[in-house]
Amino acid sequence: MPRLCFLFFTLLLLLSGCHSNGKQQEEEECTPAADLPQLKEKGKLTAVTLYSSTSYFQYKMQPMGYEYDLIEDFAQSQGLELEIKIAQSTAQLVSMLHAGEADVIAYPVFISNQSKQEVLFCGHEQQTSQVIVQRANKGDTILKDVTELIGKKIYVQKNSKYEERLNNLNEELGGGLEIISLEKDSLSNEDLISMVSNGEIPYTVSDDNMARLNKTYYWNINIQLKISFPQRSSWAVRKDAPLLAAAINQWATDTKRNQSFRTITKRYFELSKVSEGFDIPEVKNGHISPYDNLFKKHAEVLGWDWRLLASISYQESKFNPHVVSWAGAEGLMGIMPNTARRLGVSPHELKDPDAGIRTGVECLRRFRQGFSEITDPEEKIKFTLAAYNAGIGHVYDAQKLAEKYGKDPLVWDKNVAEFIRLKNDPEYYNDPVCKHGYLRGSETFAYVSEIMKRYEYYQKKAK
Length: 463
Description:
5-stranded mixed β-sheet; 3-stranded antiparallel β-sheet; 20 helices; 12 strands; disordered N terminus
């Protein structure tokens, strides 16, 4: 009996040891590849970032964003495939990095003595401040000193960091600022900037990088007045990845890649994205464009009125087959090159009017198939147009939001359209029902409306 007990406990210890060693081995195997050599061995770099207009978003089914373009350029310089993961907050960025879910934070993390203890900062260093956004039309008085804000109405989102900074500034100035706090339910920071541009409110506050990007949409805003000290920020990697940090630093200072950096910066912060405004060109003798016969030919594939195709084409290109948008969309129908390639069409072919229209119609046909549950023909057209502009995933997100908030997910106007517009607000694009993140939804909202209005005019003028 004692011998039997001894054997039992010996076996138990052996099993316990095996389990412990197995667990230790498993943990070692699960330990994240800490540095550049291991990343090159597996051929992939995983970056974590946040959805926003300046970091990462999807537009016309293509990944875009200033930080995204930069981290993609770095990955290409190292011969690595790029994988993007999304965090919900800056705190989660750091926790995902330390958990091994990502190799690099491709988002500006504020540099402080405490954060230096947690991560290695690397890459292009940014200095950001909060600025006053004010209108700069002819005759407007431009504020140049913070003391000139006394007695002025400044509109910000309630409980936002901008409200907090204004309250602190008010204390520093001895009072006098009229801070108007707005509920966040339906207004984002970008909405407030738009309202300043349109003259609906006099002033708001924004981070200067967000303000710089929005100035490419609104030429009549001034963003020069800073109301906070600059804060330094940059990308970050784990402390156990010094070689990766060194490679990112070398890439950031490599003069051979300066042109790439300047091109990316220009794309987001300098190239004008201002549309010429909604317009309807005059139709003479029933002819809309030089390409009417091609619109008629390819509209048959969809069973759509050719004049609707003409309205889409004018919205995308003003009937210029050689135009290229800031986002890279090309040709009469505004097709992204990667989308064209997936359909067997080269970017060069997009400049051919016949190929460009044919490719656009094929995209529209495929998007339309994604809305089989919508039976009303006009509603289906509007949903298809929205998907053509923004990508079908964003439209699905807006449908889910509409359903969640008691609206009809199968009706565009005053229902799904309202939630596509709200997809520029973190409260909505970070909602668990959304899968595709940030969208400058006001553009898609206007896109559908303007195409339909122009189409109505074409119906009357071009028989």
